[in-house]
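Whiteboard transcription, Tuesday session. T.W. wrote the C-alpha cells on the left side:
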C-alpha cells in the first residue's frame, strides 16, 4: 500500500547498518562510504531546525560533504511534509508535495522543479546505503527560507515564510492567487490570471503553437500546479510553476495547453492586477470541395486558425470536424457533388459555440487533416483495405466471403495487457482484404491493423476496452464480434498487483512492495477455480496508472481485488488489514465491497494467524473511489516490521496467503449475486 514517507528503497541490510559507527552529540565521528570509497568523517554536529523546532536524527545524522549540509532523504522529506518516491531504474528521487514535484538524480548536479531545470553545488548521493539530499537545494526548490548559523552550526528552515524583500527590478512581490476559467464549454473562452496587487512586469513567451506561456516577474505563485477542469474545448489544462533566477529574484510561469493552434489576445486589466487571455471567435465562411488525383479535397475557409478536432463515427461511416469557439456562415447542407468518396455533407452548431461538419463516406476511406492561419484542409482517399465493413452498433467487423476458409481454423490471441487482440486467418488473404489500418475510434475499438505474418493474414484489434473475440459465418460473410467479457463469462475478477514500474510502493527490511504484490497476485491467480475468468492489471514490472485500473474494473469485471503491502513509522506495527469503500450503488441485493473485504480479511487471519487489524473504510484512495464494482485493497503485511517482512519473504507463507485470498474470492462468487 502506498503510504506517506514510505518511498525510500531501503537497500541496507542489518549487517551493513552494524558496520557504521555514529556518535550523536557535540561531535560526529564516523565512516562515510560514497562514490565507492570510505571517507573518515569527524566534525562538530550539525543541528537542523524547522520553524524553530530541532529535528532529532534517526539512523543518520546531518553531515557536511564538500561544504554542503546533507540530510537523509526520508527524514527531511517527512519533516517538510513531502512524499518521496524512489525510481530504481532511473536512479532518481522524487520529492512531491501539493505544489511541487522535484527530481534529484543520484550523483547528478542538475535537478528539476515541476519540469524546470535547476543546478546544485553538491548532488544527491548514496552515503552509507542512505539517500542523502543537499538541504539547501531541497529547501530552495520547495520555496522555503533557509539560513546557516556558523557559530552554532545550525541550519534554520522556515516553512512559514515572512514577506519577501522587494526586488530592485520588480518592486515588492505580488502573489498570483486565482485563475478564472470559462463557466462552461459554451461560454466565452476567456481565462483570467489574477494577483493580489499590480503586475508590474510580465510577458508572453513564444514556445510553440500548442501552448500559451506567460511569465510574471516578481510574482509568487499561490495557484494549483495544474488545472484540468477548464470548461474549454480549446484549453486542455493550465499549468503553473514558480521559479528562482540566479540572482535570487523570482517569477511564476503560467502555461495554457491548447488542443490545437487558435487565435487569441492577451490584455491587462485597467488596475493592472489581472491578465486576460481571450480566444477570438473565428467565422467559418465557406467550404469548397473538389476531386483531384484520386483524392477528395475539402477546404474549410475562415478568418483565423480553426483548432479543429477531427474523428470518425460509424453506422454509417462519417468523418466529423468539430471547430470550437466559432460563428458559421455555412448552409446546413454542403455541396459534395464534385467528390468521389463523400456521399453527403452537412453543417450545424453542435453547441452554442462549436460548429460540426459531417461528411458521410464509404466504409473503407482514410483521411488527412491540416490547418493554416485561416482555415483547414481535409483530404479523403481510398483505403488500402477492401471487402470489409465495421458496425459500431454491433461491435462487429464483417469480411466479405470472397474466398472460403473454415472459421474453426481461425486463431484468436488475446494480448489485452498490451492493448490488443489478434484474429489470425488460416492463410494469406492480402489479395482479398489488403493491408493497412481501419480507423474506428469508438469506445470499444480504436483501430484495426491488417497485415501478413508467417503467411497468414492478421487482424489486430487495438482496444479501448478489453473484449472477447469470436468469428462465425453470417449471411454469406464472416463476422468477427468484439463482445464484452460479461456477455461471455459468468464470473469475472480483475486481479491487481499494486504499484509496479516507476512506482515501487513502500519498502523495508530489504523488500520492495511492487515485487511482492506481483508474486502474491500470480499465486492467487494460480489458486483460483477455472470457472472464474481472471484478468490481470499487470504481469510484469510495469506501471498501469490507478485511473486505468479502476476504469478496467468498471468496464469488464464483477469485482476487483488489489494486493498491497503496508508500512508504518512505528516498526512494531504489524498484521493484516483490508480496505474498502461503500459505493453509491450498494443496494444490498448484490455483493458489496464491505462484504468482499470481510471475507478476505477473515480468510487470511484464519489461515495465517496474523494480527487482525480488521477491515477499514477508506475514502481517500483512487482505486476505491474510482470503481463502481465491489473492490478491495488487501494490505497483507507491514514491510516495516521485521517479523512481517520475514514471513512474506518466504515462498511457503506467500502460498498460504494466496490460497486464503483465492478461497475468499471463490466464496464471494458462490455466496453472493454479483450482477
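and on the right, the sequence the group agreed on:
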Amino acid at each position: 500500500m502506498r503510504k506517506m514517507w514510505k518511498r525510500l528503497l531501503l537497500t541496507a541490510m542489518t549487517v551493513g547498518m552494524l558496520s557504521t559507527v555514529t556518535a550523536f552529540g557535540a561531535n560526529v565521528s564516523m565512516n562515510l562510504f560514497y562514490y565507492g570509497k570510505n571517507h573518515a568523517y569527524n566534525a562538530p554536529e550539525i543541528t537542523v531546525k524547522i520553524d524553530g523546532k530541532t529535528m532529532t536524527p534517526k539512523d543518520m545524522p546531518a553531515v557536511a560533504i564538500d561544504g554542503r549540509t546533507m540530510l537523509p532523504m526520508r527524514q527531511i522529506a517527512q519533516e517538510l511534509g513531502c512524499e518521496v518516491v524512489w525510481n530504481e531504474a532511473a536512479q532518481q528521487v522524487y520529492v512531491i508535495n501539493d505544489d511541487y514535484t522535484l527530481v534529484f538524480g543520484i550523483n547528478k548536479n542538475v535537478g528539476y522543479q515541476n519540469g524546470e531545470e535547476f543546478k546544485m553545488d553538491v548532488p544527491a548521493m548514496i552515503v552509507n546505503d542512505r539517500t542523502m539530499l543537499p538541504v539547501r537545494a531541497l529547501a530552495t526548490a520547495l520555496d522555503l527560507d533557509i539560513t546557516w548559523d556558523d557559530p552554532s552550526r545550525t541550519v534554520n528552515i522556515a516553512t512559514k515564510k515572512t514577506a519577501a524583500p522587494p526586488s530592485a527590478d520588480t518592486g515588492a512581490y505580488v502573489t498570483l492567487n486565482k485563475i478564472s476559467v470559462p463557466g462552461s464549454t459554451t461560454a466565452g473562452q476567456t481565462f483570467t490570471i489574477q494577483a493580489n496587487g499590480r503586475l508590474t512586469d510580465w510577458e508572453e513567451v513564444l514556445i510553440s503553437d500548442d501552448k500559451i506561456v506567460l511569465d510574471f516577474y516578481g510574482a509568487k505563485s499561490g495557484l494549483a500546479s495544474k488545472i484540468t477542469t477548464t470548461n474549454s474545448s480549446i484549453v486542455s489544462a493550465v499549468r503553473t510553476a514558480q521559479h528562482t533566477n540566479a540572482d535570487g529574484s523570482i517569477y511564476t510561469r503560467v502555461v495554457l495547453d491548447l488542443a490545437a493552434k487558435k487565435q487569441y489576445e492577451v490584455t491587462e486589466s485597467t488596475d493592472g492586477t489581472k491578465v486576460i487571455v481571450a480566444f477570438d471567435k473565428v467565422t467559418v465562411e465557406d467550404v469548397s470541395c473538389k476531386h483531384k488525383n484520386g483524392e477528395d479535397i475539402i477546404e474549410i475557409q475562415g478568418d483565423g486558425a480553426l483548432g479543429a478536432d477531427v474523428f470518425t463515427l460509424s453506422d454509417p461511416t462519417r468523418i466529423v470536424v468539430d471547430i470550437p469557439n466559432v460563428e458559421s456562415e455555412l448552409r446546413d447542407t454542403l455541396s459534395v457533388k464534385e467528390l468521389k468518396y463523400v456521399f453527403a455533407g452537412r453543417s450545424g452548431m453542435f453547441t452554442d459555440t462549436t460548429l460540426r461538419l459531417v461528411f458521410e463516406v464509404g466504409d473503407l476511406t482514410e483521411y488527412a487533416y491540416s490547418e493554416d492561419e485561416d482555415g483547414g484542409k481535409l483530404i479523403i482517399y481510398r483505403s488500402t483495405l477492401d471487402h470489409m465493413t465495421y458496425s459500431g452498433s454491433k461491435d462487429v467487423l464483417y469480411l466479405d466471403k470472397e474466398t472460403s476458409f473454415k472459421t474453426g481454423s481461425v486463431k484468436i490471441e488475446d494480448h489485452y495487457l498490451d492493448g490488443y487482440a489478434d484474429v489470425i486467418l488460416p492463410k494469406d488473404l492480402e489479395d482479398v482484404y489488403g493491408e493497412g489500418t481501419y480507423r474506428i475510434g469508438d469506445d470499444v475499438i480504436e483501430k484495426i491493423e491488417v497485415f501478413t505474418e508467417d503467411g497468414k493474414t492478421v487482424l489486430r484489434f487495438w482496444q479501448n476496452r478489453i473484449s472477447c473475440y469470436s468469428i462465425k459465418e453470417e449471411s454469406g460473410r464472416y463476422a468477427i464480434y468484439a463482445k464484452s467479457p460479461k456477455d461471455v463469462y459468468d464470473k469475472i475478477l480483475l486481479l491487481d498487483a499494486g504499484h509496479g514500474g516507476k512506482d515501487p510502493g513502500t519498502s523495508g527490511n530489504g523488500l520492495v512492495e511492487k515485487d511482492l504484490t506481483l508474486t502474491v497476485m500470480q499465486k492467487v491467480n494460480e489458486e483460483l477455480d477455472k470457472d472464474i475468468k481472471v484478468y490481470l492489471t499487470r504481469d510484469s514490472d510495469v506501471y498501469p496508472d490507478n485511473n486505468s485500473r479502476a476504469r478496467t474494473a468498471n468496464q469488464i469485471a464483477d469485482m476487483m481485488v488489489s494486493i498491497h503491502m503496508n508500512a508504518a513509522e512505528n516498526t512494531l506495527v504489524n498484521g493484516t488489514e483490508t480496505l474498502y469503500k461503500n459505493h453509491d450503488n450498494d443496494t444490498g441485493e448484490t455483493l458489496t465491497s464491505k462484504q468482499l473485504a470481510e471475507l478476505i480479511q477473515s480468510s487470511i487471519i484464519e489461515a495465517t494467524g496474523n494480527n487482525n487489524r480488521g477491515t477499514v473504510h477508506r475514502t481517500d484512495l483512487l482505486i476505491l473511489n474510482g470503481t463502481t464494482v465491489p473492490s478491495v485493497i488487501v494490505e497483507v503485511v507491514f514491510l516495516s516490521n521485521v517479523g512481517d517482512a520475514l514471513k512474506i519473504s518466504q515462498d511457503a507463507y506467500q502460498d498460504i496467503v494466496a490460497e486464503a485470498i483465492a478461497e475468499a474470492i471463490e466464496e464471494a462468487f458462490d455466496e453472493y449475486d454479483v450482477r
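Someone added at the bottom: Residues 291 and 412 are 40 Å apart (CA to CA).
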